From TrEMBL:
<keyword id="KW-0418">Kinase</keyword>
<dbReference type="InterPro" id="IPR036890">
    <property type="entry name" value="HATPase_C_sf"/>
</dbReference>
<keyword id="KW-0808">Transferase</keyword>
<dbReference type="GO" id="GO:0004674">
    <property type="term" value="F:protein serine/threonine kinase activity"/>
</dbReference>
<dbReference type="Pfam" id="PF13581">
    <property type="entry name" value="HATPase_c_2"/>
</dbReference>
<protein>
    <recommendedName>
        <fullName>Histidine kinase/HSP90-like ATPase domain-containing protein</fullName>
    </recommendedName>
</protein>
<dbReference type="InterPro" id="IPR003594">
    <property type="entry name" value="HATPase_dom"/>
</dbReference>
<feature type="domain" description="Histidine kinase/HSP90-like ATPase">
    <location>
        <begin position="11"/>
        <end position="115"/>
    </location>
</feature>
<dbReference type="InterPro" id="IPR050267">
    <property type="entry name" value="Anti-sigma-factor_SerPK"/>
</dbReference>
<keyword id="KW-0723">Serine/threonine-protein kinase</keyword>
Amino acid sequence: MADHLEASVTLPSDPASVSAARSHVLSTLVEWGLPADTDAAETIRLIVSELATNAVQHTFGQSPTFTVDLVLDRDTHLRIGVTDSHPRFPKRLPAAVQQDNGRGMVIIRWLTAERGGRLRVRPTREGGKTITVELPWTVPAHPVTAVGQPEA
């Protein structure tokens, strides 16, 4: 595989775009060799879903679009970045407020740590922010079947 691969998609800040972001990321990762039926693919799908949902729900109409960037470096690290143009950084909400929502960043941090990755939030030059998750890239030799045995 190449030393460096990139993919990007910019979508409208609309709830339907969350599914489009997940689909784009999954199809790209499958092209790059990650089987869609792995735990790693499911974790990445959930991380992208939470990041895209945050970009849609928490920018309060001040970010008409958001961008999902994928970068695979030297077959060792995958970076997933979601950028919007709203200047407010995500923050943990008080427990009482978290009854129905507000857990997205907690979920993302937990999934990232569980996979041995790291999460960063940085401002953009344009005044928005990018939330980046970096994960180790491990492509299994064989997809695992439902009974836990490698496929032949």
